[in-house]
Amino acid sequence: MNEITGIHHVTAITGDAQANLDFYTRVLGMRLVKKSVNQDSPDTYHLFYADADGNPGTDLTFFPWPDSAPVHPGIGLSMEVSLAVPSASVAYWRQRMLDHAVAIDGEENRRGEHAMLLRDPFGQRLALVATSDAREFTAWNKSPVPAEHQVRGLHAVRLWERDRASTESFLLNTLGFHSMGDDNGWHRYGVADGGSGKHLDIREIPSGERGRWGVGGIHHVAWRVKDDAAQLVVRERVLNAHRRPTDVIDRFWFHSVYFLEPGGVLFEVATDGPGFAIDESAETLGEHLVLPPWLEPRREEIEAELPPLSVAATD
Fold first, then answer.
1. Residue 70 lies in a domain
2. Is there a contact between 63 and 219 (Cβ–Cβ < 8 Å)?
3. From 14, 134, 141, 167, which residue has the greatest number of CB atoms within 10 Å?
4. DSSP bridge pairs for 258
């Protein structure tokens, strides 16, 4: 069972779209590789930040829902996304946070890797984790962050669960993860070598309250598969585990299957392709509002509902 190769993307809920864009491009130096809409609710944006090429595994995406309540932290949610930065870049990122008045919530050692904890303007929990693991990454030459310090992609996610055993069984026996042991109250599960972008951590909180989606929280975690055939294999196993996966949904840039893992976190299995360059040139990714073909006839209506969003040059 090696169809899942790592994290494909993480999607979170944010507030004002412009403030979100400014933080992830101007402060964290990530590239907006796709400016589109939520395909299930096209009156709101869907913003995709990644490396220069939008490689799977580098992609952190957001639904701007400014009228939503703040996230209610609790069990059944993914509570933090960590981003990989080069192992020699800790001092750079500490100074950059200071320069941009971003509070650092703390710094800690996670299995020999340095983690810098912070939050984005809407409270999303982030960790910049310094790692020397090899990554599929292309530097963005217009980033305000020098290439040698840029965010390399998604490092991991952290889940809060009431009962780790049921989720563990599902991860090991259905999705093909392996156990990597405990560290400071967190249990790690990985695919392949379990390195950067290939694992998740779970904290068991038996008496915890149920969490609720909202601004500043993660909506779902997507796992990578190579192609449609691999996706169908995983979907069949999820179905046999009685987790009620959706049918395959065409998201145009990749194909998706969604389901709840036993603890309640929304998972997705997403294909590596076709990729973000299918409808834009590599040079102009993210510069214009892009709609999948089935929404293109509604462009005028959709654009009228969206707030202005300035994709300005980075500092």
1. yes
2. yes
3. 14
4. 268
Mean pLDDT in residue range 142-161? 98
pLDDT at residue 314 is higher than 60 = no
> Closest by alpha carbon to 152, among 222, 59, 34?
59
Q: Is 247 exposed, middle or buried (0-12, 13-18, 19+ CB in 10 A)?
A: exposed
For range 244-265, the mean pLDDT: 98
CATH number, domain containing residue 236: 3.10.180.10
**How far is it, in rounded angstroms, from Cα 216 to Cα 21?**
14
Domain assignment present for 314: no
The pLDDT score that the predictor gives to residue 311 is: 84
- Domain region containing 293: 4-305
In a domain, 311, yes or no: no
- Position 217 in a domain: yes
Number of domains in the chain: 1
Q: pLDDT tens digit string along 290-312?
A: 999 999 999 999 999 999 999 86
